[in-house]
Amino acid sequence: MSTDEKKKIPDILARIFSFTFHPLLIPAYGLAIILSAPTLFGYLPFELKKLLFFIVVINNVLLPLSVLPLLFNRKIITSWTINDRKERIIPLIITTVLYATTSFIIFKFPIPFFLKSFLYSLGFLSLVVTLINLKWMVSLHSVGAGALLSIVLILSFKMYTPLVWYLISVIIIDGLVLSSRLQLKTHNPQEVWLGFLTGFLGLAVFMILLQ
Question: What's the predicted TM-score (pTM) here?
Answer without folding.
Answer: 0.93
